[in-house]
Write a structure and sequence with these properties.
Layout: E1 5-15, E2 18-25, E3 28-33, E4 45-49, E5 52-57, H1 59-72, H2 74-79, H3 82-89
Length: 100
């Protein structure tokens, strides 16, 4: 499943002529394109789908949605377990010895 997930803008920069942001999705941080919301500012929330910020969202609505998604397990489904991903990237099975 591919969700549109609310996230909070942490910082904004221009890369190769494209306005990009670092966005926090309840603890998972991803890079997002801001071309559809050119006036979005640091600290604001937006609904993001497949790497594009699509709509501005108020903080309370964003928090409620993130809490609901977390309760339903949808954030893990969408983003995976960051600890598991980091362990895999490091060549470690979660809770097991280092692979050789």
């Amino acid at each position: 499943m591919c969700l549109a997930v609310p996230g909070r803008v942490l910082d904004i920069e221009e890369r190769n002529g494209t306005r990009m942001a670092t966005v926090d999705f309840g603890g998972v941080v991803k890079e997002v394109c801001l071309e559809y919301l050119p006036d979005l500012q640091v600290g604001e929330y937006a609904i993001v789908h497949v790497g594009f910020a699509l709509q501005r969202l108020d903080e309370e609505s964003a928090r409620q949605t993130l809490e609901l998604f977390a309760e339903l397990g949808l954030l893990q489904e969408e983003f995976g377990d960051p600890w598991e991903a980091a362990a895999e990237e490091a060549g470690v099975d979660a809770g097991k010895e280092v692979r050789k």
